[in-house]
Amino acid sequence: MAGKFKQWWSFDPEAEASSADNPHAPLRDDQRRETFPLLTLAFGWGFLVTGLIVGGALGKGLPFADIVTATFLGNSVNFVIGALVAYVGYKTACNSGLLYRQVFGTLGAAGPVILVALLTIGWQGIIVGAFGFAWTQSFDTASFYAVAIFAGLLFTMTTYFGVKGLEAVSIPATLVLVAVGIYAGWMNVSAAGGWEAFLSQSEASAGEAPLTMVQAVNLVIGSWIVGAIVMPEYSRFAKKAWVAIAIPFIVLILSQWFLQIVGAMGGIVSGTHDFTTYMLAQGAVIGGIGVIAMSLALWTTGDANLYLPAVQTASVFKRPQRVMTVLCGIAGTIIGLGIYEQFLFWIDLLATIAPPLIGPLLAEFYLGGRKRFDAEALTHAPVINPLAFIAYAVGVIAALNAPENTASALVGLIASVLAYWMLSMGVRSLGKS
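The chain above was modelled as a monomer; its predicted structure follows.
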């Protein structure tokens, strides 16, 4: 038994390099994935309960026409950021952990990777809790804990098989999710008495918790900008540049926009963003379909979210990806038993401290010269790059002190990019003098 555990725990460079995920080095061309399963995986990842919750909040603060505008603008900002980051992943074939090694240093990369791992494991815990709530409609009963633990183990089991496991779940789930989302929207319009009646009801409900257009756009940006900065985990598998760009487009423009609209409709008519709640009120059959659809959405999202810290920590700490998947999965399951009700706080925390991490990478790749980003550069990366840490600190401070009518996540990211670029230019100028 001890021998088998040692073998499971031990790092085998050749075995990891030959795996489909290869977390410790840039992917080879033969490890890139086919387009269709990769894009369906993107849709499943984007089908996150965040969109429903954001939509529900918008439904109480804006008329429906303004909701459509605000969600489009906010998702478009996130898409642009996601596309810039995704292209880096595609061009270098590196996951975020490897990219951080090139920018923050071989030892310094442990800092951003640990931070992102903690944040995404917490996010994973929220998905575990959401799964439990979908089936039990409670937060603290024995049945909630049992279902949540089952969900955590389920996510860990499928993610254990890497990107192949993720694709196996996401492909059949996609059609079910789209169909149920469309049905939920139709149900709310019908319950309101038709389209015109729905729009009138939307005007009336907009006064419950009024929002300005700027506040609404900021809410949308903050809800998924963190997803935008971890695109390399998936875009590195793309065989073509357009596929890498299509991944954030599907996640942010299609999946999240769709869910935000469905969530807003539910908030306006049914009083809740969660379609399982009002579909359960329609009887056992319709309610059962709603719960199954939500479970599929959370399953695909839970897998995709767990994959992020597993790959990043494996790449930096030289552990097998299977080991880090189990460790991160167990941690996310435990956290999920009590964190779901802190959902909005976690979004705000993620949106403040995570985006500035990617600033030095974007500055280095797009403004500092792309020659550093290749397989050979990994062997010559500095131990620690203090400029990256200074730029990150500047970004976090800027986000924390952002004006009220601006997106703090976006402010922090831009400040981090500019700080790193200016610091790098200054150091290079001193070196030439």
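The chain has 21 helices and no strands.
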